[in-house]
Write a structure and sequence with these properties.
Blueprint (H helix, E strand, L loop, with lengths): L6 E6 L13 H19 L2 H6 L1 E11 L8 E12 L2 E10 L5 E12 L11 H7 L3
Antiparallel strand pairs: 1-3, 2-5, 3-4, 4-5
């Protein structure tokens, strides 16, 4: 099985995204990573699946490469990497649309949970296959 295509979200930098140095605040990059992951999940799954599987973030790593500034359009590209047990690795890169420059790269680890109990849970092969890296 080949790896699923990355999922992309485009975002325009708004004034509220900026920090005191007039570039995108680090927390905003984290929000974009999370928003892209959620959008990817919702795009590939049904509302029935979404009702039975929630996600808890276990680990977040981000490397900042360059600054985004007011008015920049950025592309947030995400995909699932390795799956180990019930831990799903997600890899995300954020690039400036105008020149393709990498602004940030992220690796996050997610665990599926039962939304009613909040406890970790295994997901079906159907769900695993939607996000499998191969």
């Amino acid at each position: 099985m080949s790896a699923p295509s990355p999922y992309e979200v485009r975002v325009r930098v708004e004034p509220t995204d900026l920090d005191d140095q007039d570039h995108v605040n680090n927390v905003v990059y984290v929000r974009w990573v999370q928003d892209a992951a959620i959008a990817h999940w919702r795009a590939l799954t049904t509302t029935d699946i979404q009702a039975t599987v929630g996600w808890a973030l276990l680990r977040h790593e981000i490397d900042y490469r360059a600054a985004a500034r007011l008015g920049d359009e950025v592309i947030v590209r995400t995909r699932v990497g390795h799956l180990e047990g019930i831990t799903f690795e997600r890899l995300t890169d954020i690039r400036r649309a105008a020149d393709g420059r990498v602004l940030a790269e992220s690796r996050t680890l997610w665990c599926p949970i039962d939304p009613r109990s909040g406890r970790p849970r295994r997901v079906s092969e159907e769900v695993r296959s939607l996000f499998s890296a191969g």
